[in-house]
Amino acid sequence: MEVTTAGRFRVYRSPRDGDELLLLELPDERVDWTDPAVETDADDAYSPTYVPRTGYDGDLAARVSALEPGNEIEATLRWDDGDPQFDELSVRDRTRFRFVGAATGLFEAARETWRATGDGEAIGSRVTYGTDGDPNAVLYVFAKQPGARDLFDEFGDGVVPVDPLLDRLDDETDAPDAPREVFVLRPLDEEFVLVAIALDREGLFARTMRDTYC
Fold it and tell me: What's the domain range around 150?
């Protein structure tokens, strides 16, 4: 039996297979997993769906092929015997995610953000500014988790969604409407995972991060 569903999704690379995409359906209401007062679990709020990248024709094939991790899309999925495929899609936001699993030579603003994080706090943040005095990025540092949990991998697999950080940026900064670029770095010689959100993915901060770490 064939059915269709429609929703708003964030695109991730699939951790299972390079020939598919992982879609996280975005909830109608914001869920901030960084707020200890919020009881809703991210697993309950962001539903994952794995969709093949191939098997489409014409314009739809071109649009699926052009999708990048981090893009926000509106899509209709066609389910045939439990297997989903894209039926329609449009890109709402071309924000892009990049993951660097063995970063070295971390820039000083990131280390300063970690040093300024209070004892016992798991998250620190700061806004950075360009030479013109305008904000160009928001940095978040997260304490590396002991034991089996790997926060970097959880960001990459969508287990820990990035969207609450993007929502917070929209709320707290006078940012341009340009698509963002999100860099998630696991420094080899630091005690934290860094999430750096460039306010403009074509701006100088984003270009410098790509040239340095990607």
Answer: 96-213
Separation between Cα atoms, residue 197 and residue 95, nearest integer Å:
10
Q: Which residues 6+ apart lie within 8 Å of 41 measured at CB?
A: 33
Element housing 100 (H / E): strand 96-103
In a shared domain, residues 109 and 11: no
The answer to whether 86 and 60 are in contact (CB under 8 A) is yes
Rg (C-alpha) for the chain, rounded Å, is 18
Per-residue pLDDT band for 198 (boundaries 50, 70, 90) equals very high
- Which residues, at least 6 apart from 13, have a Cβ–Cβ distance to it below 8 Å? 21, 22, 69, 156
In this structure, what DSSP letter does residue 198 have? Answer: E
Q: What order do you get walking across the sheet with 83-93 strand by strand?
A: 47-52, 20-25, 2-13, 72-80, 83-93
User: What mean pLDDT is predicted for residues 72-80?
Assistant: 96
Reading the block at residue 189, the tokens are: 């010689």
Q: Are 102 and 88 in contact (CB under 8 A)?
A: no
Sign of CA dihedral 9, 10, 11, 17: negative
Q: Give dist(CA 94, CA 202) in Å, integer.
A: 11
Same-domain pairing of 58 and 112: no
Distance from C-alpha of 113 to C-alpha of 47, rounded to nearest angstrom: 32
- DSSP summary character for residue 180: P
Predicted TM-score (pTM) of the model is 0.91
Q: Token digits for 60? A: 């739809």
